[in-house]
Amino acid sequence: MAQKTTLKEFEAVFPKLEEVLLEQARSYNLPQQAYEHYKKSLEVNVVGGKCNRGMSVVDSTSILLGRPLTEEEYFQAATLGWLTELLQAFFLVSDDIMDCSITRRGKPCWYRNEGVGLNAINDAFMLEAAIYTLLKKYFRTHPRYVDLIELFHEVTYQTEIGQLCDLLTAPEDKVDLDNFSMDKYRFIVIYKTAYYSFYLPVALSLYLLDLATPENLKQAENILIPLGEYFQIQDDYLDNFGLPEVIGKIGTDIMDNKCSWLINQALAIVTPEQRKLLEENYGRKDKEKEARVKKLYDELQLEQRYKDYEEKVVGEIRAMIDKVDESKGLKKGIFEAFLAKIYKRSK
After folding, report:
1. Which residue is catalytic, options 4, 16, 67, 99?
2. Alpha helices in the chain, H assignment, sequence order
3. 173 given a catalytic annotation
4. Is there a catalytic annotation at residue 192?
5. Could you report the per-residue pLDDT of 227-266, keeping only the tens digit for each?
6. Is 104 an annotated catalytic residue?
7. Would you call 39 a catalytic residue per the annotation?
8. Which residue in the list 166, 239, 253, 331 is annotated as catalytic?
9. Cβ neighbours of 6 (radius 10 Å)
10. For residue 341, is pLDDT > 90?
11. Is 50 one of the catalytic residues?
12. pTM for the whole thing?
């Protein structure tokens, strides 16, 4: 039987990887001040999240093998998992600067730390570079080493084009609802979220076990991209309809002028008068204007619209999982595990 990892087990691997990265920095005779800064960047930006992406690599590997992992297998899978967390850290440090965000995981964003500022841009580059240092250290002799490198490069690029579209579609300082569309929304979601959050962990597991046949990769992509899209739509729904004490944050999509699923659904069904209300109130840093948009969302019955969507898409995903061809080593259990984590989640 496959075995699920815990956050504690997964986090126990990071100090060894951190030491490799710090040892490399020392090998270049990095001055002490810069060394301490790099060490702090690794510890603040990489550790401390939920690590869902990283742990998914470990869990997927165990499901593919159908048993608990040996110590060495666990270390290899967890190392690839931590590379997804380094990628995530690289994106988040950069994203917070672009969005002028204030907090991340309940603490000041990295660029807002004393002595950091826009040096955080270079710190983000170094977090990305760390991925390839660790890949070379632990996987250079692996038969799929080049594939692993190319996978990280490709998923990084996919996420960046998703971010580009997001930044151009919904700038915080210029509200233009004509700029929004479901086509743009889907592009942003698929490329900014679904590939690196859902497809990447499973593809890494398949490459690790040398099961990454074109057929297996395609089947995984065909299921995991719709799963990632569903996850993001769910996130947009919870931003407005979720309880802050449950989701752990106060939703800001309306005030932040986000090209979210809810605003796109609203734009498709509003009357001219309701459209005018949205144009006057959406994307403004004003609680009263936000409340007017929320009231309109209730009038448009967007909560029910989301629930109808959820049942439809989950039915479609389950049908795809049922048809998975397991003859080349892929397992339906991987996708069932992902779906179980997110179906009807409340946070």
Report:
1. 99
2. 7-11, 14-27, 32-45, 52-65, 71-98, 119-139, 145-169, 182-189, 200-208, 214-241, 244-247, 261-269, 272-281, 287-299, 302-322, 332-342
3. no
4. yes
5. 999 999 999 999 999 877 766 667 788 988 999 999 999 9
6. yes
7. no
8. 166
9. 11
10. no
11. yes
12. 0.93
